[in-house]
Amino acid sequence: MTQRFEFELHGTDDRARTGTIKTPRGDIRTPAFMPVGTAATVKAMMPESVRATGADILLGNTYHLMLRPTAERIAKLGGLHKFMNWERPILTDSGGFQVMSLADLRKLTEEGVTFRSHIDGSKHMLSPERSMEIQRLLGSDIVMCFDECPALPADRARIKESMELSMRWAARSREAFGDRPGHALFGIQQGGLEQDFREESAEALRAIGFEGYAVGGLAVGEGQEAMFGCLDYAPEQLPVDRPRYLMGVGKPDDIVGAVERGIDMFDCVLPSRSGRTGQAFTRRGVVNIKNARHQEDPRPLDEACSCPCCSNYSRAYLHHVFKAQEMISGMLLTWHNLHYYQELMAGLHGAIAAGDLAAFVRGFHATRADGDIEPV
Ligand SMILES: [Zn+2]
User: Fold this and answer.
1) CB of 108 within 8 A of CB of 148?
2) Per-residue pLDDT reduced to its tens digit, 273-326
3) Residue 330 CA, distance from chain mean position
4) pLDDT grade for 101, boundaries at 50, 70 and 90
5) What sign for the dihedral angle of Cα 327, 330, 334, 337?
6) 373: CA distance to ligand 1 center in Å?
7) Cα 41 to averaged position of ligand 1 atoms, centre (Å)
8) What segment(s) does the record annotate as region RNA binding (predicted)?
9) What is the pLDDT of residues 196-209, one digit of tens each?
10) Domains of the chain
């Protein structure tokens, strides 16, 4: 097994790519979907079950872990992999995005952000240096630069100011990260929906140099059309020989469209969160298990799915345990949803490798357009 962090590109189909990210903790097949393990757990799933769905890597959230149980405590207990019983790669975000969306009384300066915890009101500070320290204490394999991202829509002056601050913070993140063989630091491109700012940001990041690059600041309410518009140029502004990560995306059709536009990595809470609210993602679109049409339906969610939920349980059972608020409801639907996402990624790998992505994407949209099976 490699002792270094490397990215091997195996094949391309138009702008889409398939490859392998090699790390000392294991390979990550790309395009990759990373389930979100916010508080050192993918909610409702055992780590071995997450692996069984086909996940090569998980995402952990710096903001949540620094507040509870704290990065220092996790380090003392042997790091995040050991703490949560996941030996494969982990990517951690920088905490910046969640400070902006969750914390109270935020104050942003050149140095960083001070804020109060949404849990107990205690006062904390995040800066590029502190974010790098926390992610090192956690033992993260892929570390994200500390950045700032304005909510869209924002005016050009605000987007430019924010992007330039993030680029200064990217340089400080690189410096603070230091030399850590086998670990990677990813830069984050900002610039909103402004093509010239995206290019400036990409230039600044390339000059610093990173092991991978994220397209940041999307999936913040701009809509799919605007996001795809940005992805028509943003990924190609980043180095071709490094992984490209679209943060916080997304729905299955967002992922397919982004893979077509050259993205290699994704994370999103959607499959796990939806699993807990009675929503299942299937080849035929979203199924709401709480709907009364399922109450006497003996068929599985998706008869073509090989996950334990679809192999062993009926829609009628899933409807019942959701209505009865039984824990197994969230467990089964989360397992199915994560399995569906990983099967989608596997389908994309195969199609790109075969040079057949356009046909795969046509089939993906056609099956969804058919809609759910007829009620019994
Ligand atoms: Zn299933």
Assistant:
1) yes
2) 999 999 999 999 999 999 999 999 999 999 999 999 999 999 999 999 999 999
3) 20
4) confident
5) positive
6) 15
7) 21
8) 248-254
9) 999 999 999 999 99
10) 6-268 (3.20.20.105), 275-369 (no CATH)
